[in-house]
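Standup notes, structure subgroup. Blocker cleared on the zinc ion input:
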Amino acid sequence: MKILSIETSCDETAAAIVEDGRKVLANVIASQIDLHAKTGGVVPEVAAREHVLKMMPVLNECLEVAGSDWDDIEALAITKGPGLISSLIIGTETASVISYVKAKPLIPIQHIVGHIYSNWLYVEGGANEGGEVMNEPEFPILILTVSGGHNELILMEGHHKFKVLGETRDDAAGEAFDKVARLLGLGYPGGPIISKMALSGDSARFKLPKTFLEKGSLDFSFSGLKTAVLNVVKKNEGKIDEKFKADMAASFQETVVEVLSEKLMMALMKFPQVKEVHLAGGVSANKRLREIISEKLEKLPRKFLFRHPKSFSYCTDNAAMIAAAGYYLYRSAPKKFKKKTNIIPTTSFEIW
Ligand code: KG4
Ligand code: ZN
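Run returned:
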């Protein structure tokens, strides 16, 4: 069953076609990074206008890459939220019109749930990072979602059955990467730039605060860390050279990675029935984070299968993950998703 999906929650205009929830046939992403680099972050109005321009070309390219036409498509999946409302609306309106004109069922997907399903995706015969392990993930799964706007620890007990164990109380991990990059004058988005700079930096040079919150809490907080970086930057005004930036990037990254991986281990201790550990969201592209989690898991007496998305393009925002999530929801109750329907976007964070 082929599902065509659309994702426009922030600054990527994306469309994909995925077969049976896992096999990616097309994954087209028009990134707006260059546009937003000028302002050091996303200006919602600018992002929405760009989505209007890119939506139809991206959809047409997607059908072409997959060698599909509308008759091959069983249903549509669309990101309903959370995200920037002016960006979301371009995707939901487009999907609603197609649902009406082509008489296709329309499946609304929560963006974070989409990220979670990025670990189901692969390309047949393609270069699937992390090997060709194609078996279906086994429940229960413990998931660390780390993105620009969200940061959670989630227990997934079955398809679309989620328990949020912990979440960010202020800045998400990706947001902290972006803000620290901005403080250091490194550009946007911060994650990939900081992780590259960190390679040549000394992570022991700056002692930054690791916030674990109250004993046993699985919540996250990164705003204190950002302020600590700001204070060091202010103290060193006029003396900030490339070495300083690289050392700060490495120290900051190490601190974030330590907190994220430790919280993940704490959650594993609380839920020993877990079979797999997954990493999802933009920050899952971070190699140091993957490395530290792997090291910590290897030291445990019990072995857990550790997955992260099989392509870097599935880590950051994309539509393939929305199609995967859509497939498993649709399969459970196809009649629920009427033909010819329309979806109203939402900024609500709640997982449904
Ligand atoms: O999931 P995503 O594409 O968007 C949201 O849903 O928020 O995540 C984007 C975030 C940005 O904050 C970006 O800086 C971060 O993911 N990111 C990274 C890396 N690549 C992207 N953070 C750390 N290391 C990376 N390699
Ligand atoms: Zn995202």
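Discussed briefly. The chain has a mean pLDDT of 95.
Next: hand off to the docking folks.
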